[in-house]
Fold this sequence. Notes:
Blueprint: E1 6-7, H1 10-17, H2 28-36, E2 65-81, H3 88-91, H4 95-99, E3 105-111, E4 114-117, E5 130-134, E6 137-141, E7 147-158, E8 164-174, E9 179-190, E10 196-208, H5 214-226, E11 231-233, H6 246-249, E12 259-266, E13 269-272, E14 276-277, E15 280-281, E16 290-291, H7 295-309, H8 337-341, H9 355-358, H10 363-367, H11 371-380, H12 396-414, H13 420-433, E17 458-459, H14 461-478, E18 487-488, E19 494-497, E20 500-504, H15 506-509, E21 516-522, E22 526-532, E23 535-541, H16 551-555
Parallel strand pairs: 1-2, 11-13
Antiparallel strand pairs: 2-3, 2-10, 3-4, 4-6, 5-7, 6-7, 7-8, 8-9, 9-10, 12-13, 12-23, 14-15, 16-17, 18-19, 19-20, 20-21, 21-22, 22-23
Helix pairs in contact: 7-12, 11-12
Protein name: Beta-lactamase-related domain-containing protein
Keywords: Signal
Signal peptide: 1-25
Amino acid sequence: MRLSKAVTSFWLITLLSSFNWQVTAGTNDFVSMVLQKGNPPLVPLNYSHIVDPNTSPVSGTLKLSGEIRLKVNVEQSYLTYIDKKQSVAEQGYTHLDRELLPDIKFQFFTLDGNVIPVERRLQSSSHAYWDYFVGVGLVEKTEQTGTYQLTVPLTLVERNQNCTHNGVLTFLIDKQGTASQYYYQFTSETCLYFKVNLWGVGQTKFATFNDIKAEPILEQLKIEQQTLLPRRPLTELLNYNNDVILDNIKLKEFIEHDMSQLGVVFKGIHYYGQCQTRTGKYPFCQQMVLPSYSLAKSVFAGLTSDALRSRHPNLLEEEVTDWITECSQNQWQGVRFKHLLNMTTGFYASEKHGVDEGSSDTLKFFLAESHQDKVKFACNHYPKKSSAGNKFIYHTSDTYLLGVALNRFYQHHYGHDKKLFDDFLVDKIFLPLGLSEIASSTLKTTDIGQAFTGYGLFFTADDLAKLSHYVSLQTADLIYKNIKHSMKTPLASIRYLNSFWLYDASVKVNCKRSTFIPYMSGYGGIALAIVSPELQFFYVSDSNHHAWQNSLIEFNKLTSICAN
Length: 564
């Protein structure tokens, strides 16, 4: 029985699954049928059939270092749509573009039962649609003597965009480096407009490479592990107050497998949710790659502006035209960095919230790959309608311009070979916090490598937990002492300041006076909220729901939210 290349009805997947042969990770069924014979299953497998969730890494039995190259098998690469309305044609790509893996290659070494890639940052490819991340994986024994199953987390990232599809790559290898065919599977994503299952098999080529410098790689991993926040299941929040309704914190109105990650940081402890996919729990939950989307506006634009201001107090008073010559001297005269940061430039087409950002014209900005095209849109697309500083209009293109201006300002003061993202945000903020190598990646333009700034970052759940705790320590200077300058928005009880949203929690928890909670918000259903100095909350989803505020009723049972 052969499955067509593009099954668009979810009921068919369910029907076929009842006929699918059953396998167990590391046993003769999976090894023989999939990895040795190259026969992919008719539908994606439960992850417990690929990676045994109870398996400990096999220590000291396999020592390999080298490079893996994957050759795509066009005839045995499969894609099924989860939502029939999501058409590849609507996105402007052929089916084949998305169905096939890119030409993936990565160097790795094994140590103590772990598969450790040399590079864990975002890897570019020549594929029309996909770039990728490779994470730290596992070595498992098989029932066949001298052969081991290597499984690594593999994440596909939409080229030039922030969508992520998390999955696994697995293959057999012996001590001589002879590798089997590989199997890959993706049944989870954070991508509102493209939800699919991808799976298949292909040829694996391994070449021994003994010159890998493992020490700096292991040192970075050690730092990440040593700085992990203490982790406990979300259910243990009930130990503080048994009246807390966890379903309200878990945002149960969301579709379960649309929730990539959810966490609460309370008193310095990370209370985590599950990494649920359409085929069971994701086996590498702590390494699941999460897109920032517009969280980047707060993290990148907001935090770097605030940190640079400690060195350059008048930073936000800088004139845009002094740093971005692409913007008209006459039209942009009087617009300062602070106006880009607060989206009050006076340039807009519509005063209605979301109309400009949601316009089909704005796709020109988001699809542009070069700085030349992005800055041309950002400087020239919207007409001048009011003086700067008077009206909040949400534009990601404003944040892009701020990123350009800040980068040029930084290079002017610290060296033209410097990059604001790499040399300041990563080196001065992310690395001291112990954020993962994943967080050291960002989307950039193809010509001059200008970071997108308003979107395009990537994190793990632990990264977001650490960041939320860090931001909670900055809010006094970053937000509260400037709150009188926050901008009203058309959204009820919500203001905007320095690339952060502010929600008046008094409407939910009956405070005697306004109590503004700083939060970040991202496309598709992403948020990170600084609920109180001792409690922070985040979730990453693609349900297109942004109504997390009911959870405040439960958090108020754990910590006092209302302002004194």
